[in-house]
Amino acid sequence: MAFDLLIRGGKVWLPEGARNVDVAVIEDRIAAIGTPGVLSAETVLDARGLHVLPGVIDTHVHFREPGMEHKEDLGTGSRAAVLGGVTAVCEMPNTRPATTTAEALMDKLARAHGRMACDYAFFLGATADNADDLAMWEQMAGCAGVKIFMGGSTGTLLVEDNAMLSRILSAGRRRVAVHCEDETRLRERSFLVHENGVPTRHELWHDAETAFLATTRILKLARNSKRNIHVLHVSTKREISLLRKNRDIATFEVTPQHLTLSAPQCYKCLGTLSQVNPPIRKKYHQDALWTAVNEGIVDCLGSDHAPHTLAEKAKLYPTSPSGIPGVQTLVPIMLTHVAAGRLSLSTFVALTSTGPARLYAIAAKGYIAVGFDADFTIVDLKARRTIDRSWLASRCGWSPFEGMTVTGLPVCTIIRGHIVMRDGCVLTPYNGRPLRFQEA
Ligand code: DOR
Ligand code: ZN
User: Fold this and answer.
1) What φ, ψ does residue 103 adopt, rounded to 5°?
2) 278 C-alpha to center of ligand 1: Å?
3) Is residue 176 a part of any domain in this protein?
4) Which terminus of the chain is more solvent-facing, meaning fewer CB atoms within 10 Å of its CB: N or C?
C-alpha cells in the first residue's frame, strides 16, 4: 500500500504500551502500525532515539481574541502551542466580547479558520442570561462545551448563586468545566490586599478555603442535577480529598505551574509574574497534587495559558492581572519532571492525550491507533535547553520558567498527517481545524 508518511524507528506510545514500531499515515489518518523496516512511504520521518506520543491536547488556554489581541491572538497562541508540541487546544470564553452567544462562538470559529496552527475548539461562557440556550449551543460544531467561572478573574464572566448554577447544570448534557473559587469569600477578604503591593498576599486572599468552598458547592449541585463536571486547575490538598470521593461525576485538571512553582519562593523570585487564580500555594498543597497525579486520579493537565503583557504585570499588586502563559512550556516542563523521576511517561500520556480526549469526548484523537487522526508529539527525552525569550512565540513574550534548563523537548509536532513543527520551526502555520466531539 502507498502511504503518505512513515514515522520510522521511534518508540511509539500505543494504547497497550510503548513499542518499537513504525507508524504509517494516509492523508489525515493513521493507516498502519507495523514491524520496523517493513512499511514504506513517500515521506519518511526518522524517529530513531525519539519517543512518538499521541498528540498533546491542551484543554485550557486563553488566546485573548477578540478584544485583547495585544496580549495574544489565535495565530500567535497556536504557534506557541505547536512549538511546544501541542496539537490541539480548547480555548476559554473570557474574551472581549465574552463567548456567551451562538454569534460570538461563530465569530471565533470564523476567526480561527485558516489562521491557527493547531486544531481547536471554543468554550461557551455561562451567564445568568444564557442558561436556557446553552443546551442547544453546546451542540454546535467546534464547541468544547460550557465553562462556569464561580469566582471572578480576567473578564466579567461570573455565576455566583446556587439557583443560577443549578439552572446551568440542569440544561445540557456535556461535561461542564468549572473555575472553583468562592466569589463571596473573595469579596469579604479583599481588604487583605487593598492597595497592598505585596503579591505574597495573593495566596492568603485567594486562600485554600476559597477554592474548597466552591468545589464543595459545585459537586453538590452537580450531583443534584445529575450533570458531570470538570474541575479546572485544582490547587489544594482538601479539594483532592474531596474529588477522590466524587470520581463518578467529576474529573479534574492540574497545571504544570501548580506542580512546579511553590509559595512563598515564587512570589519572592517572580513577584506578580507568578500571580494566578487559583494561586500558586505552599509545598504541602503541591505535594498533594503530585500524590494525586501518581495515584492516577488526576484526569488531565491543562496549561491554563493566560498571557498578560509585562507592562500589565508590572502594575502594583493587586491591580496587576492574574494569569501566566504556559501552552509552549507544558511539554518541556512536564518532561523535565519525567527526567527527574517524579512522573512516568505513561502517566504523562494519560494526562495530556488519553485523558483530555476521554473527558471531553473528543472524536478520533488521544490514541495512536489505526483510524485515529495522525496527530503526534515526537519528543527527545534527553534534549536540553534553557527557556528563554528567543524561543517563546506568545505575544506576551515571557514565561515564569525563563532561565530554567529543561530536559526533554518536543522536536516534531504532526497534526492530521502534516508536519507542523520540526526542530523548533513552524512549517505549516495555518493547518488547524475544529475538533469533533462524540454525541453526549
Ligand atoms: O489567573 C487567571 N487568569 N485565572 C483565570 O481563571 C483567568 C485567567 C485569565 O484569563 O487571565
Ligand atoms: Zn483559565
Assistant:
1) -65, -45
2) 8
3) yes
4) N
* Calpha distance 116→313 (Å, rounded): 27
Q: Tell me: the pLDDT tens digits for 110-150? A: 999 999 999 999 999 999 889 999 999 999 999 999 999 99
CB-based contacts of 200-204 (< 8 A; 24+ apart in sequence): 200/263, 200/264, 200/267, 200/268, 201/317, 201/318, 202/267, 202/275, 202/279, 202/317, 202/318, 202/322, 203/263, 203/267, 203/279, 203/280, 203/281, 203/282
Look up the domain containing 110 and give its range. 55-359
Q: Is 304 a catalytic residue?
A: yes
Let me know if residue 423 belongs to a domain.
no
400 assigned to some structural domain: no
Q: Is the pTM of the predicted complex or chain greater than 0.70?
A: yes
Q: Look at the block and give the residue holding cell 465569530.
A: 107
Q: Are 413 and 426 in contact (CB under 8 A)?
A: no
Kindly state if the Cβ of 257 falls inside 6 Å of ligand 1.
Answer: no
Find out whether the beta carbon of 61 lies less than 6 Å from any atom of ligand 1: no
What whole-number distance in Å separates Cα of residue 427 and Cα of residue 321? 34
Query: CA-CA distance, 407 to 255, in Å (whole number)?
Result: 18
Q: CB 184: neighbour CB atoms within 10 A?
A: 14
Residue 341 lies in a domain: yes
